[in-house]
Amino acid sequence: MRKKSNSGRGIKNRAGRGKKKGNSTKTGSSTMGTVKPKVDVRVSPEQKRGEVKMENIKTRKLFEGKITRKAIVEAFKKLSPRHMIKNPVMFTVYVGSILTTGLWLQALSGQGESQPGFIFAVSLWLWFTVLFANFAEAMAEGRGKAQADTLRKSRQEVKAKKLAKADKDSKQSEVLSGDLRKGDLVLVEAGDFVPADGEAVVGVAMVDESAITGESAPVVRESGGDRSAVTGGTKVISDWLVIKVSSDPGESFLDRMISMVEGAKRQKTPNEIALNILLAALTIVFLIVCATLLPYSIYSVAASGAGSVVTVTVLVALFVCLAPTTIGGLLSAIGIAGMDRMIQANVIAMSGRAVEAAGDVDMLLLDKTGTITLGNRQATEFIPAAHVEVKELAEAAQLSSLADETPEGRSIVVLAKEKYGLRGQDIQELNATFVPFTAQTRMSGVDIGKRMIRKGAAESIEKYVKDQGGKYPDDVRAGVEAIARRGGTPLVVTEGKTVLGVIHLKDIVKGGIQERFAELRRMGIKTVMITGDNPLTAAAIAAEAGVDDFLAQATPEAKLKLIRDSQAGGRLVAMAGDGTNDAPALAQADVAVAMNTGTQAAKEAGNMVDLDSNPTKLIEVVKIGKQLLMTRGSLTTFSIANDVAKYFAIIPAAFALTYPELDSLNIMRLHSSQSAILSAVIFNAVIIVFLVPLALKGVRYRPASASKLLQDNFLIYGVGGLIVPFLGIKFIDVILVALHLV
Amino acid sequence: MTSNQWLQIIAYFVVLLALAIPLGIYMGKVYENKPLFLSKLFGWLEKLIYKLGGIHPEKEMDWKGYALSMLLFNIVGGLILYAMERFQASLPLNPAGQSAVPPDLAFNTAISFITNTNWQFYGGESTMSYLTQMAGLAVHNFLCAASGMATLVALIRGIVRKETKFLGNFWVDMTRGTLYILLPLSLIFTMILIQQGTPQTFGNTVNASLVQPTSYDQPVTTAAGVPVTVDGKPQMTHVVVTEQPISLGPVASQEAIKMLGTNGGGYFNVNSAHPYENPTPFIDFLELLAILLIPAALCFTFGSMVKDHRQGWAILAAMFLLLAPMLYICVQQEQAGNPLLNKLTMGTHGETLADGNMEGKEVRFGIVNSSLWASITTAASNGSVNAMHDSFTPLGGMVPMWMIMLGEVSFGGVGSGLYGMLAFVILAVFVAGLMVGRTPEYLGKKIQTYEMKMASIMILIPPLLVLVCTAVAVATGGNGTNNPGAHGFSELLYAFDSMSNNNGSAFAGLSATTLYNLMGGAAMWFGRFWLAIPVLAMAGSLAKKKAVPESAGTLPTHTVLFVVMLISTVVIVGALTFFPALALGPIVEHLKMVRM
After folding, report:
1. How many structural domains compose chain B?
2. Which tens digit of pLDDT belongs to each residue from A370-382?
3. I need a labelling partner for B18 at 20 to 30 A (CA). Which of A513, B173, B390, B585 fits?
4. Which pTM was predicted?
């Protein structure tokens, strides 16, 4: 498995917030060795606490004036039959509105089936029902569009310096970014905008990607490795890069993002289709119920010899009230809003299907480094050999690490300083010679005069000591084993042939991560830690972090196999990844979140991109997916439960003249037949507007077992859905009477 | 309700449960092809049937093959039955000399008996020959019951199996279901019936001399059937009756499967109110048990086949809870009787008539047994009666109507009841699954677009048939009703409710017309097979899926909460569909009665 030497990758944003320490710049090859090590600033305060929390979730105000105004206009535009036909439930309401308008016109000419005023009122509110549903959809789309507009600003046509070959100094020609094709080579220098998506092939540069990520701190992009991908629309702020263009115009990452956000490519997701079928079936049932009421009414009038046949207006009103208009009107808004919530969490989903699948995930694969543990190991303990003072060991360890720029090395210096008050000394002042780590010796150290201090893996040091004729003590060997068993990495320190002791390097599990895993377990999601460590170490860290399972000594093949096997067992797997070697696993996973800092290959393979490049975001992604389904389910339940009250309002009213006895069913004691029918229709329309915020925000979600969630939502939306309309319809009836509208 | 009444009902359900559990587990073994005690006795017969039919029992079918076999089998069976009715006059075993059944009635009856409806627009003893009764109707009582169970079993296999397209062999399921379940049970029950006095004979009708002759006045008609009037009044003749013809026949053998197979088609016109069909209180109790026995036992078959008995219990609980309050209303309403009659005093001591509504009921059975029978015969799609539902109080009569309207899923027909209920389970799981934020799944199988399509068809078809057929009937004048007004409407609504949902009980009071015969026949056909085919299609789709392992995120489908959810789904769908129609029928009738 690829070793993650870059501490900044996984947790860049956390470290970068406020105090950017520039650790992402340190790994750049061009800066290596020129930066003087400063031992005390390695970790930011936040990183030290290792908190896992969600930040950077921008929240857009629910009703922004501009978007709302635009949505109102859009609601009318959407009245075209071509648009209406896409939503079968609302289309029936639309037809009902046209029908009642016709009946009203007929009534105006004096041959109506009822008073024109009443028919007009019903017709008007049916139109409102349609408009309100259109408004809900337009609101959701508007919020997406606002996001897209921000993105679009960064997609201006820029002049690009096209190169003949992959060499900075080769022949340049100036072309427009829109004319670039896949495979073209371009040069970007400080101050230039990157003209298209591509792969850096030569050079290293600082790039400001704030246009895409909203993150102001610049990031390093360099040729080769996992950080070679550049995105069109970002700006180079220092140095230069030669880029090989990887997409044709209109197919770039940004283009896809915009079209996703705008909902232009929005396809109905599988659950949405299934729900649509159910809603269509219910609509057909209610259509038949209302249509057959006409002959029933004719028969009843003839049989009882009293009253008049129920009017078409009343039947249309009854039908619209019964049809699942609440959920039907809000369904597409809910889908768009789900996508929008992903964007607000800084995750771009490449399809709605992926968002929905996120809710179904039952297994999460998480990389150890950067996700479960802080980016790197830290020294936590000095264990001296027999007859050696711990301070002596600490001092030697610190000296050997002064010039060691690796995070591990620096943590040794910090530990010695914090625990034993040993101040870091300047390596030049000491006149010391740094002995760097090589693959042959597999140790590093320092020579100060005659003192030769070395630190390294146990086997290397043992060999080093024995070669000099020294003795490798048993207590040190025991210490090494103990550390390995606890999941740590032992580093043995020796001065000459005298072994001084062991340094315990430990993976630091992020604070708060255990709670998150417990949360996931409550949600029924299994977590699997992926690590290149040996099984012993992996097991210890897995236990400490509280993951359910781990995959040790993971290779890309092993990862892919794990995903395939789990999927064959019926599980839905989610994972996050950023490297090219993650790409096969990302492509195989059901929900694959690629880090924005990752390679183009990883981004292509995934079905979501996390702009914050925070692997813990997977948990948020799952939440948003679940919330989307829950909102649909809850509003469906609410919509159907509502019908009971509407029956009690309309049925006695519709047949009051034929069978006055049915007034016993008017348990709300509504004022008159007309006020009862009108109140039900008005309630049915207004409830859509009231539920728009819920549709856009989604129902509240907290991690709990399925039973508990069902219980809560059944009580709120099922039982609530039974009661609310009784109160609402009565309330509207009282107002109508008070205003003398009926 | 008195404690005696409670006791009768509680005793009934306790005994039912005690019998259903072992039977259900046994039936699971039958359909899982496990060795049985009975296969030692009848194994040779099973093998012989396969050999004669050219059946390869080990060769399984996909859903289309299964559905095609099931459909073909029923169509051919229906055609034979139709022919038998039409030609019965020239066929043997017709001592009473019954003439050919008219085409529209024969059509209606043939479909009625292959669809497990057993709607009867005829009186058995005055229409059908012994051969038609025995080799036609009784045989189909077995076959349609076995066919319903086979369809259910295919669905269960679809849920249990993983990543396969095979659902079993229809012919094997039919053979084993008949041979090892229906025949042995019927055999035992027939023996008990004969012992208790039910006739089983080929002997002709017997004429008995009345101890006390009765007489009545009959209008005189001309040869053309026009009443003769004298001074504007019809001329009457006095008729004295001294003899009564007593119909006989192979009653016991047909009675057993009629009760066990949720068929309900009586040998005699008055069904189980007839002393030969229902001779003693003991038989009455056994017949009541037989109505619900197999439908209840199938819940345990389901539990044992899916290897989770809690699932079976949950469905059984939902079925029972759908029935229990309705049963209470029925008994309570019948016991309360008609308030208008209750107000009348008789005699000089001010005694009232408040002994409940006994109109249309057998005095041998009384109110509780009649109400219990009415409720469970419509909960299950049996449709036999021991009292006339037409004469129940408005709300008491609404109970059987309502139980049918739920789609025959509270117990329901053998096989068809449970597969209908499973369609509602899938609907409930779908909505509940969305509410917990996960693609819905039932017993590890994901419920997706295709399943929803099929479940929607199953839930859509029966109410569509009921409402549209009733609308056509009232729009064409609502002929044949026995009562005017709301009650007449109830008679029509009940008839098409009963036929569309394959129940077969009659509100009575409605006379057959050619339109009703034909329309009802179509309703029965679609009500049965437009549900059975989607069931098999769904089974095929489920069988192909992988199973999702259970986790804390999985919605449990055996909890009290889920049972409540399931009941709510069934009731809400039923109520939303039928409330307006019920309001114009029994509800307004009731309100009129109490307000008068």
Report:
1. 2
2. 778 876 778 888 9
3. B173
4. 0.84
